[in-house]
Amino acid sequence: xxxxxTFLNAGWNDHAAEPEAVxxxxxxxxxxxxxxxxxxxxxxxxxxxxxxxLGRWDEGAxxxxxxxxxxxxxxxxxxxxxxxxxxxxLHLASGQRDAAERELAAAAAAEHHPASxxxxxxxxxxxxxxGRARTTEAMALFEEALALAAYDPxxxxxxxxxxxxxxxxxxxxxxxxxxxxxxGTQLMKTAAVTARTYWERVGTWVNVxxxxxxxxxTHLAAGEADAALAHAHAALALxxxxxxxxxxxxxxxxxxxxALHALGDPAAALEASxxxxxxxxxxxxxxxxxxxxxxxxxxxxxxxxxxxxGVG
Length: 312
Fold this sequence. Notes:
Layout: H1 4-14, H2 19-29, H3 36-53, H4 57-67, H5 78-93, H6 97-106, H7 116-131, H8 135-148, H9 158-176, H10 182-202, H11 205-221, H12 225-241, H13 250-262, H14 266-280, H15 291-302
Helix pairs in contact: 1-2, 1-3, 2-3, 3-4, 3-5, 3-7, 4-5, 5-6, 5-7, 7-8, 7-9, 8-9, 9-10, 9-11, 10-11, 11-12, 11-13, 12-13, 13-14, 13-15, 14-15
């Protein structure tokens, strides 16, 4: 590791495949931190890896405690408050509600709505629990976060981005849940709509396009192919508005093909798949590492031997 940014980028790139190694590297990375924002970024990565990927909530919280003793820690700055919020989420996930409340109090900021830190804690914990297949608990926390977010967080409120991220992640988990019931299906759709709503508020057109593709997959999982096709077309319309290269149309075309297949129009589905295949030939494998496998999965689905996934 030569500098903090190099470490952080490598950590996020590697964390899904090598969570144990990345969490171990986080301990050494504290020596690279020079300012509160970096300290918070390190805390977010460590909390995500130790919690969602490893399920070692207490160990993650102990590491964040150590970061609060770092020379760059400032309790009255956003970076310091973020550390406390990350700790609150880890404590909540491990069932230590009193400890979570103490950390939540330290995360409050006068410039945001009083409910904002709690919405963010609930959203982060919901995403982490969903990643650990604790779906029922994740659903309950997300519903609580949505109820508290009735104040409609504006773009400059971190709760807005937290809802965008968690809405997407929870929709993905519920789409894949084999035992999803009617309530789970409804929440799956609510989660995907929430992601779309808040990405439009805090993100770029690409974020919104991805959210539309997510909605297409969500409606497919709910057995609503007409709605899925409408969202695939909405994603393609965004690409048209931006005069985007075909690489950005790949996943909307995949979603379109799946929706047309579900609607019983194999010829149109095959044509959408061919458009996606042509787009695939223009795509950078480093930027879209799973695209080839996703198109193969689509081809298997159209031939009756599998299912398709990504939305990048």
